[in-house]
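Working notes for the structural subgroup meeting. M.R. asked for a predicted model of this chain before we commit to crystallization trials. I am recording the input and output together here so anyone reviewing the notebook later can reproduce the run.

Input as submitted:
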Amino acid sequence: MDKAKIKEFLTDPPKMIAHLEGIYGNKFEFHEDFVPEFMEQISRSGSEQKLIKQLLKRLAAIIALGNVDYGPKWLEHLKTYGNMYSLHLDADSKNYRLLFSKTENGKLFLHVFYEKEGKTASSYAKHVPIAIERRDN
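Returned structure, recorded in token form:
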């Protein structure tokens, strides 16, 4: 994916959603706040292209895996929170966590946050409730 396309996604999140739906069909859904939130978070990273490419590769890998309960280290089942999962994106010492749940229609991406090094427990405790509220409403 070229820099012009990445820049277009950063300024027009609905185009990013349309692009993802075009590639993955109905395998993934995105809460209305997720993509703008994701784009805002990564736009400050300096690694936008790398992070979007990593996201696309990992979404393809999730489809190939079929079962998200067990998988590579970048895919975590947050068992404490039940039906909540974290997809890890890491670039240039920046750690992003994309929270999602399984639904009957696929995987629903709910919330994204930047995880500071060494702050895992407090980060999830603060952000999972946001994802749960979005999922349940």
